[in-house]
Amino acid sequence: MIRRVFWLAAGVTIGVVAVRKVSQAKSTLGPEGMNRAVGQISDSIADFADALRSAMTEREDDLRAALGVQAPTVTETGAAVEPAPSSRRARR
Asked: Is residue 91 part of a domain?
């Protein structure tokens, strides 16, 4: 009798674990799970690009300060205009 109860409990436990695993896999691999995964990846890529742009701008500012070069100004149309050269030699 004890053996039967043991094997019944083992079978129920294995069944519950299997159903939970299948449900989890279904939610992960289903359309909602794929949308969630793609959304997380695209957010990560956007965050990386933002961090890269800010670091690039900071480094450009450091290099311009070290070289004594002025940053280009931006016009109303959004086009960058380089500052005029200050010496005759720079114009050549």
From this structure: no
